[in-house]
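Dear support,

Our group has been running a series of protein-ligand predictions, and this particular one with FE2/S2 (inorganic) cluster is the one our PI (initials K.S.) wants archived with full inputs and outputs. We had some confusion internally about which version of the output was final, so please treat the block below as the authoritative record. The input we submitted was:
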Amino acid sequence: MSDEAMKEKMEKLEEIITEHKDQKGSLIPVLHETQELFGYIPEEAQRIISEKLNIPMAEIFGVATFYSRFTLNPRGENTIRVCLGTACYVKNAQGVLDKLEEELKVTSGSTTQDRKFTLEATRCLGCCGLAPVMMINEDVYGKLVPEDIPKILKDY
Ligand code: FES
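Confirmed final output from the archive:
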């Protein structure tokens, strides 16, 4: 994001906060609109929200991490979700996840430096017959072995 775009969004954030400031329970709607504005909730935005709503940073962090619809990191162009549900787990889903972390040089729950991929571990994706399973955006990959990973990533 350019500095100019960031500045514009920060101004918009101030407007959002002003709009909700006097409501009871204003934090959730403010976080919600912040997420829509930036695509995630940047630390700088958390700081401003904390100041203006007079809510400690720790509380904002707590709320933002509690609800899965909020994310504190910028998202990548593609989201990879690796199932760590039981059926997948017993078929070495962890090995698949480890390989992804190694190839992308990120830990699960974060986004690559080039913002190309966000890597996440998830609960059952509902296709246990294909275990171990991962999804990249809407594409499902099943019966994976760690060695499949580099080739699959190349397609994105
Ligand atoms: S446990 Fe992985 S898809 Fe169900």
